[in-house]
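S1.2 Input.
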Amino acid sequence: KRHIAKAITWRIVGSIDTWIIGYVLMRFFGAESINIEESEIKKKAALAASYIAGLELATKTALYYFHERIWSHIRWITKQEVRHIIKTISWRLVGAIDTILLVFIVYYFVKGSTEGAAKLALSMFSIEIITKMILYYVHERVWFSSNYGVIKLKD
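S1.3 Output.
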């Protein structure tokens, strides 16, 4: 139950971060298109950001849960700060691959082609690698200080 709670709380934080970054970048890239009104750019940016963040609720919640299950069996990293840093990096790699795939899928459905999707995906990846690693590390440290769902061995 701890892993599920961690997955849900992280997904809320991560999805908000993704939505904000996606919206800002889609507005920026939408501004490069000529003959499109500002209100139309805002609508498409909000739609695309919502699709990406919404799809992440499913994909990343499942991926995060399995990531947590795998890490619960890794015992060879005993220093907690080091463990959290390595775990942060491994999760960011998994998350980045997922985000890149989702950007291509959503970009295709919103714009009708994948032309320009690589630029958006790379931009999102570049920003998220920083924001999400910081947010994830803080999330890990908060959960480490929590006893919620911890099974304590009886003497």
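S1.4 Remarks. The mean pLDDT is 84.
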